[in-house]
Amino acid sequence: MRLLGAVVISSHPQSQSVAAGANATFAVAASANPAPTFQWQLSTDGGGTWTNLTGASPYAGVTTGTLTLTAAAVDMTGYQYRCVATNPTGTAVSNAARSR
Q1: Helix (H) or strand (E) holding 60
Q2: What's the whole-number mean pLDDT along residues 11-21?
Q3: Contact, 89 vs 7, CB < 8 A?
Q4: What distance in Å separates the CA atoms of residue 47 and residue 71, rounded to the nearest whole number?
Q5: What are the φ/ψ torsions at residue 84 (nearest 5 degrees)?
Q6: Please, are residues 57 and 70 in contact by the beta-carbon 8 Å criterion?
Q7: SS3 75
Q8: Where are the alpha helices (H) located in 1-100, listed in sequence order?
Q9: How would CATH label the architecture of 5-98?
Q10: What is the pLDDT of residue 75?
């Protein structure tokens, strides 16, 4: 018999300075049984609303533990990113990280 376990986030993404045109990565670590799936989200209003990211440029890895932002635009300063980890037992949401 396999025991199910709740999703636990053990490492949250860290805020970082991202210059215009530069790349950045945000990483999260989560564990559970069965293993969780990941979905990165974006907030452009200080965390008031969150939208699931798609794999469209400038984002990659939106359903993995590492989100990559390629060639950041100037207007992306202050954007917040968080990751939602889910398995059949539930969901855990990481702390938000800011691009500054």
Answers
A1: strand 59-60
A2: 93
A3: yes
A4: 23
A5: -105, 120
A6: yes
A7: helix
A8: none
A9: Sandwich (2.60)
A10: 87
The set of residues, in sequence order, having a beta carbon less than 8 Å from that of 58 and lying 6+ positions away, is 69, 70, 71, 72, 73
pTM score, two decimals? Answer: 0.93
Characterize 78-88 residue by residue with b for buried, 16 or more Cβ atoms within 10 angstroms of its Cβ, and e for exposed.
ebbbbbbbbbe
Tokens of 28: 């999260």
State in Å, rounded, how far the first CA of the chain is from the last one: 47
Given a cut of 60, is residue 49 above it in pLDDT? yes
Residue keyed to tokens 């970082």: 16
Q: How many CB atoms lie within 10 A of CB 41?
A: 19
